[in-house]
Write a structure and sequence with these properties.
Length: 404
């Protein structure tokens, strides 16, 4: 279930994250058993991967690249470059297009919170300096890190667009948390304010500089927001029917927004949540059809990915939801459960999967469509065939290409 964090807990988490050596893929959870090696794994440009093309259903073929276990990923851009961290050599890296090749970013230390990158490879994140967290930006391909400072004692970056505008949050002198936006190439930081409450958080930005996130109202409830271009103004997106709280997690260039909506109780906290998607300009919020989801993402075609708290990943397109976890290609590489946490304009999906039988650490994958995505009717047939309500994890047919 999503969390709408109180400000001090958010800052404490930030400081703990910035001060500790860790893997940055939040979807990766350590497991304690061993995985055996796959006989068809291959080594390409320092990445241990397996690429398998097969028919996922009658209308689509996909190729999957499975990465080595010590590689975790943070973001994907529109050429299919991946931003990640290699725990074996303790370095951040950027891959080439479609996840091929690797370039280590040697000047980076482990004392960073790397959050996102854009199509030219500019990276945004945060680092500790003199007891405060500062925002940074790099040049193209992760070169030449520049300290952008902080509005308050602590600032945390969330996202970056192709103009180099960065969004995130900072602590105010009153120890509250406010969302911010910068100008091009990270120049200047502007407080986005709130809906009358103490706190706001920024999660994503599009190419017009429209920002989405969530902000506290005067009665202390969080509502999803969208701004105008360059972060000007803050509009309440409201909630789904019968809910009283919401959070926006991503936005595309048409200003379609995805996120969560839920019911908040002072005694019980957030009792239930459901995913949502809007039309252009943040209008006409409708349900995504996934309960208790985690961080939906959306591309410029309006395709979205979302994970449920049941260990299932879903793909949304043209009003139809399909269960990615049911694609046979995942069975062929030995994944019983998957999560999807990035999608680009090519429809490539970045995620991680693991075997329940082996009970090992999740392994990152890149799923690439190599034929047109099927019509919605085909998706509906796929959902019916999977028996969504009665779905059970698949048995492993092949070994994963890495060992624990």
């Amino acid at each position: 279930m999503p969390v709408f964090p109180p400000p001090q807990e958010e800052i404490n988490d930030l400081m703990a994250a910035l001060g500790a050596e860790r893997e940055l893929n939040t979807n990766s959870i350590e497991k304690d058993k061993k995985m055996t090696k796959n006989h068809y794994s291959i080594l390409i440009a320092g990445i241990l991967s397996a690429s398998i093309a097969m028919s996922a259903n009658a209308g689509t073929e996909w190729e999957i690249k499975v990465f080595d276990k010590h590689m975790s990923f943070i973001d994907i851009n529109n050429s299919g470059q991946l931003l990640g961290y290699d725990s074996a050599i303790k370095r951040y890296f950027i891959t080439g297009p479609d996840g091929e090749g690797i370039s280590n970013i040697t000047e980076f230390s482990n004392n960073l919170n790397v959050k996102a990158f854009n199509d030219s490879g500019q990276i945004a994140g945060s680092f500790l300096k003199d007891g405060s967290s500062h925002v940074f930006i790099t040049g193209p391909n992760g070169t030449s890190m520049v300290d952008l400072g902080t509005l308050g004692k602590h600032s945390l970056a969330s996202d970056i667009n192709n103009s180099g505008q960065i969004i995130g949050q900072f602590t105010t002198p009153e120890n509250n948390t406010h969302a911010f936006i910068t100008g091009s190439n990270g120049i200047g930081m502007t407080d986005l304010g709130t809906f009358g409450g103490k706190n706001s958080y920024a999660s994503a930005i599009n190419e017009s500089g429209q920002v989405v996130g969530w902000s506290q109202t005067a009665d202390g409830i969080y509502h999803a927001f969208i701004t105008g271009p360059n972060g000007i103004g803050m509009t309440d997106l409201g909630t789904l029917p019968y809910d009283n709280a919401s959070q926006a997690t991503d936005i595309n260039d048409a200003a379609q927004v995805v996120g969560f909506s839920g019911s908040y109780s002072p005694d019980w906290g957030y009792v239930s949540t459901g995913g949502f998607i809007t039309g252009p300009n943040g209008e006409n919020m409708i349900p995504l059809g996934v309960g208790n989801p985690n961080s939906p993402k959306i591309n410029n075609s309006g395709q979205a990915i979302v994970n449920s708290d049941l260990g299932l990943a879903y793909f949304y397109s043209d009003g139809v939801l399909t269960m990615l976890s049911g694609l046979s290609i995942f069975r062929e590489v030995g994944f019983d459960e998957i999560s999807a946490f990035g999608i680009n304009d090519k429809g490539q999906i970045l995620g991680s999967g693991y075997s329940l039988e082996e009970c090992c650490k999740p392994v990152a994958f890149l799923l690439t469509p190599i034929s047109p995505v099927p019509e919605p009717s085909t998706y509906a047939m796929l959902l019916a065939g999977l028996g969504l309500l009665g779905f059970k994890p698949f048995k492993r047919k092949m070994k994963l290409p890495t060992s624990c």
